[in-house]
Specification:
Number of domains: 1
Number of strands: 7
Strand order of the largest sheet: 3-2-1-4-5-6-7
Distance between the termini: 40 Å
CATH class: Alpha Beta
CATH topology: Rossmann fold
Radius of gyration: 17 Å
CATH superfamily: NAD(P)-binding Rossmann-like Domain
Structural class: alpha/beta
Largest sheet: 7 strands, parallel
CATH architecture: 3-Layer(aba) Sandwich
């Protein structure tokens, strides 16, 4: 353990969905703490631009997180960095549909679950095996308060995030004996590109979400990223199987 338990020197963290939003903020925060990074997303140009701004070593992998080949390429990239594969942040996710669950076509359910749940499972399996072999590590899955409530008109997204929390608990139990800690972070409304599109399309929803928040505002990407990076550090060495809610008090307000 480092003298400073919040540092991530000589460790590699793989971040999916890293080209923008919370994923990019996680990359910036982890790099400030000394971590080397493998950044995964579909958009190569955005990954290259982000990598150029980070102070530590970075490799980029453009690909689909629900493709097992992408996970293998990410591990190959991590090996090139020469530092221990310590962390995985399963941040990649989509939420492009907005209508009642009863009106949601099956292909939309498949789209969302494929990325949000299957993609996370694929990366957790591939990277988790490496962590077990190396004596430990950290996995953080990006949940959402949508997985803890019944938000209308985004049924597939709600279901995917609830399932991801269940996967988190299962992996925490199975991998804990090998020193791999697994947690979820469940943000509330965060000002990411994905959320801004939803709020712009639904002004009444935006007003309602802010009105319910005790802090009276939506969160910023860095406010979700910093707790994720904390869970990667030695300071969080006795936390596993948990869902850390980062929502400005919204769930507490009912």
């Amino acid at each position: 353990m480092s003298e400073n338990p919040y540092l991530l020197d000589n460790r590699t963290i793989i971040v999916t969905g890293a080209s923008r939003g919370i994923g990019a903020a996680v990359a910036r925060a982890a790099s400030r703490q000394g971590a080397n990074l493998v950044l995964v997303a579909r958009t190569k140009a955005a990954l290259e631009a982000l990598a150029a701004d980070l102070p530590t070593q970075v490799r980029i992998v453009d690909g689909d997180v629900a493709d097992t080949a992408t996970a293998e390429r990410a591990l190959d990239a991590a090996e090139e960095l020469g530092t221990r594969v310590w962390g995985l942040v399963n941040n990649a996710g989509i939420n492009p549909y907005y209508h009642p669950a009863m009106d949601t076509p099956l292909h939309e359910w498949e789209d969302v679950l494929r990325v949000n749940l299957l993609g996370a499972a694929i990366f957790a399996r591939a990277v988790g095996r490496v962590m077990v072999g190396e004596g430990g590590g950290r996995i953080v899955n990006l949940g959402s308060i949508a997985g803890l409530t019944g938000l209308p008109n985004i049924g597939p997204y709600n279901a995917s995030k609830a399932a991801l929390d269940a996967l988190t608990r299962t992996l925490a139990v199975e991998l804990g004996p090998y020193g791999v800690l697994v947690n979820s972070v469940a943000p509330g409304t965060i000002r990411s590109e994905m959320v801004e599109g939803l709020l712009d399309a639904n002004p009444a929803l935006a007003q309602r979400l802010v009105a319910k928040a005790p802090l009276g505002r939506v969160g910023e990407c860095h406010e979700a990223a910093e707790p994720i990076v904390f869970l990667m550090t030695d300071a969080a060495s006795f936390i596993t199987g948990q869902v850390l809610v980062v929502d400005g008090g919204r769930l507490a307000a009912g």
